[in-house]
Amino acid sequence: MLLRIIRKKRMDIKLKEGFFKQNGGLLLQQMLNSYDGSVIDRCKLFSSKELDKATNHFNVNRILGQGGQGTVYKGMREDGRIIAVKKSKNAVKLLGCCLETEVPLLVYEFISNGTLYQHLHDRLQNQEFPLTWEMRLRIATEVAGALAYLHSAASSPIYHRDIKSTNILLDERYRAKVADFGTSKFIAMDQTHVTTKIQGTFGYLDPEYHQSSQLTDKSDVYSFGVVLVELLTGKKPIFSAGNTSQENVSLAAYFVHSMRKNRLYDILDDQVMKLGKKNQIMAFANLAERCLDLNGKKRPTMEEVSMELNGIRGSSRKKRAMFSKIIKRLS
User: Fold this and answer.
1) Long-range contacts of 272-276 (CB under 8 A, 24+ apart)
2) What pLDDT is attached to residue 90?
3) Per-residue pLDDT averaged across 104-129, rounded?
4) Which domains does the chain carry?
5) CB of 85 within 8 A of CB of 73?
6) What is the mean pLDDT of the chain?
7) How far apart are alpha carbons 71 and 89 in whole angstroms?
8) Residue 180's closest CA among 88, 243, 245?
9) Tell me: the pLDDT tens digits for 263-276?
10) Which residues pair with 84 in a beta bridge?
């Protein structure tokens, strides 16, 4: 009996070691050891035992969400830190990972305020804490900055391939975080595009990429354009339009049509109408329309989008600063 237990433990250890090697653990460990302490603090290789304990044996009650790229579990580390653990077929490093299991486990920081999609489209959440125009503008600016970095500032450009409001998380201060790099693609510095199997979400998918299978940085720009329109209108990327005979309508096509007919203000979300400045709304909408151009070459880059959004947001901050100065002088 004792020998059987010892033999089983040895077999388990060998199996874990095999998965660790198979999943590239030795290479990752070598890379981590070559970096300084600050990098090692940010990235950790977890054991399967640690994550099993943190998630209460991957209990179904700990499931935060499920999708095409895997199941996400809520976990708690021994120091009390809340984490999100993702069982994924693509070992993408965030806080860390475990490579001792057949399917690699990814460890993410836990983002407490859910997704942008929930805040825009969940009626109860929208009523309890509606996103103001200023918050929407800030979220758009933060996401654009993150994508601009991935496209141009990172050592190897990365195309996300699945930008959508469910992949934009909001932390405790409602700061935006881009999530789920399960379908992302590393691009060589000298490449302008890559031919791939089509990946993405209906309603956000770049029509040009869908037709040609050629992924470019402008594919992310198109998807981000749809998110901008969601922020403006509060409508889902595919929605039912009550005044048409069609069951489902593409938000991107509906928005572009409304812009060309000068009917933007007929489709804006109530929060945007109440609190948004007309010049800011128009600049935001014009930028979204350019992102949704069917010709990818005519779309702006994410760096240009980021700069424009910062400019729109900056004009609002300058006005608030001037107003506060006037109030101080009068008081």
Assistant:
1) 272/133, 272/136, 272/231, 272/232, 272/233, 272/234, 274/133, 275/132, 275/133, 275/134, 276/133
2) 27
3) 80
4) 11-109 (3.30.200.20), 116-328 (1.10.510.10)
5) yes
6) 80
7) 10
8) 88
9) 999 999 999 999 99
10) 74, 108
**Single-letter residue type at 33:** N
> Which of the 8 DSSP states describes residue 295?
S
State the CB neighbour count (10 A cutoff) for residue 271: 18
Helix (H) or strand (E) run with residue 106 in it: strand 105-109
CA proximity to 175, closest of 95, 81, 112: 112
Query: Which residue's structure tokens are 């789920």?
Result: 180
- Distance in angstroms (rounded) separating the CA atoms of residues 223 and 282: 20
Cα distance between residue 131 and residue 48, in whole Å: 39
Separation of alpha carbons 54 and 273, rounded Å: 45
The one catalytic residue among 12, 52, 162, 206? 162
**DSSP β-ladder status, 44-45 and 96-98:** parallel
- The residue ranking higher by pLDDT, 210 or 316, is 210
In the structure encoding, which two tokens stand for residue 38, read together?
A: 């600050």
Confidence of residue 309 (pLDDT cuts 50, 70, 90): very high
Q: Are the C-beta atoms of residues 220 and 147 closer than 8 Å to each other?
A: yes
CB atoms within 10 A of CB 321: 9
Cβ-contact 217, 302 below 8 angstroms? yes
CA distance 318 to 299: 28
Catalytic-residue membership of 206: no
Q: Which pLDDT band holds residue 320 (cuts at 50, 70, 90)? A: low
Query: For the whole prediction, is pTM greater than 0.90?
Result: no
